[in-house]
Design a protein that fits this description.
10 strands, binds iron/sulfur cluster, 363 residues, two-stranded antiparallel ribbon, alpha+beta, single chain, 17 helices, 8-stranded mixed sheet
Length: 363
């Protein structure tokens, strides 16, 4: 018995949870979405799909996954890919360190494991960018090794099945839920069970609108049985995002825009961006800074304001289109036309709102 919001709630045991394994697998066999990494669950495909799916929805990932597999069909191809090509394939998915870590790990796999992802949860964990969850995915789905995968969907489903009043954002609680998953995982179909729990969270046990009447495990769900589903999962309030005001400059000359490469470390590391400055600056200040860069501005035009949300930061952007005299780009910058931009340079989605003006320019 546990207390939540003044109510005494009955939870369920590991034995009770084990009783739900078969009904859930039967439901999964009938209802699993047909996804390309499921129809061919090879280690490389499972790995790439799971990295792409971090913080990203399935429908967004699908075209990226197909394009990525066509361009870099195996570990060797990924290991030897040009970084610019890799980032271009990733452009728009965000969190670009995922792509770089994929390549780092691919190089390690080529050097130490003959190009084959190791069939060992512990060895998978040693690869860059592979944590508990991804190692669990590759091990259980591709190699049938009984280790759990616990993502946000699984945490939510378990919190409701158990009617657990614990905060699922806490590492201690996640660890406990992971142990519970490990204890109920069927030895013969670990990958399917992991995916069934996630699929249940994605399709039925939804965050705001759980569809309990169609749920294959409703008879064993403590929250449903006690009519208190909406109390779970419990989460402590998040700390607010940091707001940053930035002035973004689209400098144009002869159908080309000035791009600047970001530092190798930190937010959007190493990607190309439109030059931007802290704060919201006025016309005169923008003109003076552009001149300090050794570029002669001819005409300034205010563009619309923009907003981009990263995990912990929100950029509130003021945009300017600056027509300039042709000249040498400042250090760390290049002039690119629309074609080169499309084919070679990965520019974060934050600048999309302003990049469209380059595409509208006559050559
Ligand atoms: Fe989620 Fe409702 Fe199913 Fe419980 S019965 S697991 S709350 S959908």
């Amino acid at each position: 018995m546990k207390q939540t919001n003044g109510r005494m709630l009955q939870t369920v045991s590991i034995e009770d949870l084990r009783m739900l394994v078969n009904p859930l697998l039967t439901w999964y066999d009938k209802n699993a979405r047909n996804l390309p990494w499921r129809s061919r669950p090879e280690p490389y495909r499972v790995w790439v799909s799971e990295i792409m799916l971090q913080q990203t929805q399935v429908k967004t990932v699908l075209p990226y996954f197909e394009r990525f597999m066509a361009a870099l069909p195996d570990v060797e191809a990924l290991a030897s890919a040009d970084e610019a090509e890799l980032l271009k394939l990733w452009e728009g998915l965000g969190y670009y360190s995922r792509a770089r870590n994929l390549q780092k790990a691919a190089r390690t796999v080529v050097e130490k494991h003959n190009g084959i992802l190791p069939a060992s949860y512990e060895q998978l964990l040693e690869l860059p960018g592979i944590g508990d969850y991804t190692a669990g995915a590759i091990a259980s789905i591709a190699y049938n090794i009984p280790v759990p995968m616990v993502d946000g969907n699984v945490l939510r489903v378990l919190a409701r099945l158990l009617a657990s009043p614990e905060d699922i954002a806490q590492i201690r609680v996640r660890k406990r839920f992971r142990e519970i998953m490990a204890a109920i995982l069927p030895q013969d179909r670990p990958g399917d069970f992991n995916q069934a729990m996630m699929e249940l969270g994605a399709a039925v046990c939804l965050s705001n609108t759980p569809n309990c009447s169609d749920c294959p495990v409703k008879m064993g769900c403590a929250a449903n049985q006690q009519d208190c589903v909406y109390l779970f999962p419990f989460k402590s309030p998040k700390s607010p995002r940091r707001i940053e005001q930035r002035t973004v400059l689209l400098l144009l000359t002869e159908g080309k825009a000035l791009l600047r490469q970001r530092p190798k470390k930190g937010l959007l590391a190493g990607l190309w961006e439109l030059p931007n400055l802290e704060g919201w600056l006025g016309h005169d200040m923008v003109a003076s800074i552009v001149e300090q860069w050794g570029i002669q501005p001819l005409q300034l035009e205010r563009l619309e304001d923009g907003r981009h949300i990263f995990t912990h930061i929100e950029w509130q952007m003021r945009g300017y289109l600056v027509r300039c005299m042709t000249g040498q780009p400042p250090e760390g910058c290049i002039w690119v036309d629309a074609e080169a931009l499309e084919s070679r340079y990965a520019v974060p989605g934050a600048f999309k709102i302003y990049m469209k003006y380059l595409l509208l320019e006559p050559e």
